[in-house]
Design goal:
The protein is α/β, with parallel strands linked by helices and 441 residues long. It is built from 14 helices and 20 strands. Helix 1 crosses helix 3 and helix 3 crosses helix 5.
Length: 441
């Protein structure tokens, strides 16, 4: 259990308690739906709701204190008043960070962040107590909340850092102050906010710039951005690679085994991109003195998060739901992996659009169509307005539809027992609804 004294919270926030001082605080929450007894409630103004409207409800649900803006009042309740509650939350996280003695790992990139985070956490769990980012709590609100939920006794903290606009990585990294940084693959994700792919790479590299000279950066030598990344840090840099010079070189042995330094690691999921993500976790474990057998045991414990290559069987049809998110690189990786799966049935791809691509939107969807043409799927269903730009000129059976229900009906009319279907799209497309509709037909 995590406990904060009211005095240290006040010190970290640079504020004083209004009203009575609360007892020990056992957690921090900004959501009354998940708030637990003993929590500090943080009232954050948002686009649709203002957290200050729920302060009284938070106390009714068991909060022992609330972090609120200076102009808020609620007589008789313990309030920690600050000029800006979002900054106050971040100040709490920064203050708590100063008390940690464990090793902190920060992970960012355009694609694969969550997979790398989960793999690294499982690998390090063989060495000691590990705390990791819950779900995708990786932004200006989620990261400090994740930090404030880390046990003081944790040997390792593994945190995912995301971004959608310039400057975000540097700000988050300043709060986290990692000892180790890992960069996953870079691609045109969130391109609408950046003028070029290089600008995206430089934004991600801000995590490396936050490392101390005693720190460690794990980088992909095969990436076109390797030199740019290396130049951004004063920390020690170690590299991973497939088949070329690197500190940790991986060799693919069959479809599901990766060999590194003469030791073979069984992969928990299919795909070359999974092997590259695993190689990053393997490099981390080896750099921290872990035995290969322990690292392998950690990788075996890896469980893919919901809607990330999640497999279902419905009425004899095998579905792979990889619809949590998508960008040009992850689309290609998922489609290629699916195309290489061995199975007796036919293969269909159900694709939604890729969001946040800015001016490159039309070109990226058109290029994806050409890529799909080379994979020789038995059928393709493009769902939604964005997906209408995925023009496949060689695929014989391609359907365009506006809604999930229509896509499900197309599948129902064409699929047979043992056929396979991949669902892939950006999160906002909610492509998982195709599964729900298919079950109901």
């Amino acid at each position: 259990m995590i406990c904060f004294s009211p005095e240290e919270l006040a010190q970290w926030a640079g504020a004083l308690w209004s009203g009575r001082v609360p007892p020990l605080i056992q957690g921090v929450s900004h959501d009354t739906r998940t708030l637990k007894n003993g929590d500090l409630y943080v009232a954050i103004p948002g686009e649709r709701f203002d957290g200050h409207d729920f302060v009284e409800q938070a106390f009714e649900k068991g909060a022992v204190g609330a972090l609120v803006n200076d102009d808020f009042s609620l007589d008789g309740y313990p309030l920690l008043k600050v000029p800006d509650t979002l900054k106050g939350l971040q100040d709490l996280a920064r203050g708590y960070r100063d008390t940690w003695t464990g090793t902190v790992v920060g992970i960012t990139g355009s694609v694969g962040k969550t997979t790398v985070k989960e793999m690294c956490a499982e690998v390090l769990s063989q060495k000691g107590l590990v705390h990791r980012t819950a779900g995708n709590f990786n932004n200006h609100i989620g990261l400090p909340l994740s930090m404030l939920s880390m046990p003081r006794t944790a040997a390792y903290g593994v945190f995912e850092i995301g971004m959608s606009h310039p400057g975000e990585i540097a700000e988050l990294a300043e709060n986290l102050r990692p000892n180790i940084a890992i960069i996953s693959d870079i691609c045109n994700a969130h391109r609408e906010s950046f003028e070029s792919l290089e600008a995206i790479a430089r934004e991600k590299a801000a995590l490396l710039a936050s490392l101390p000279s005693s720190g460690l950066a794990i980088l992909d030598r095969d990436s076109e951005w390797f030199e740019l990344m290396s130049d951004q840090t004063c920390a020690q840099t170690v590299s991973i690679s497939f088949g070329v010079a690197g500190d940790y070189v991986g060799y693919k042995v069959g479809d599901s085994v990766l060999e590194v330094n003469g030791f073979e690691y069984t992969m928990p999921l299919p795909g070359d991109h999974i092997m590259r993500n695993a190689l990053r976790a393997i490099a981390l474990g080896l750099e921290l003195g872990e035995e290969p057998s322990a690292i392998a045991a950690g990788l075996c414990r890896f469980k893919n998060p919901p809607m990330r290559w999640q497999e279902h069987k419905i009425n004899g049809v095998h579905f792979v739901n990889d619809a949590y998110n998508a960008n040009p690189l992850s689309m290609r990786a998922g489609l290629q992996t699916f195309a290489e799966l061995k199975g007796a049935g036919k293969k269909w791809a159900v694709l939604g659009g890729m969001r946040e691509l800015g001016e490159s939107e039309a070109a990226e969807h058109a290029a994806l169509g050409r890529f799909v043409d080379e994979l020789n799927f038995d059928g393709v269903v493009a769902v939604g307005a964005l997906a209408a730009q995925i023009q496949c000129s060689r695929t014989e059976r391609i359907y365009y539809c506006a809604e999930a229900a229509e896509a499900a009906q197309i599948l129902k009319n064409n699929l047979r027992t043992d056929d396979c279907v991949l669902l892939k799209a950006s999160r906002g497309e909610r492509l998982e609804r195709v599964l729900e509709c298919f079950k109901e037909i």
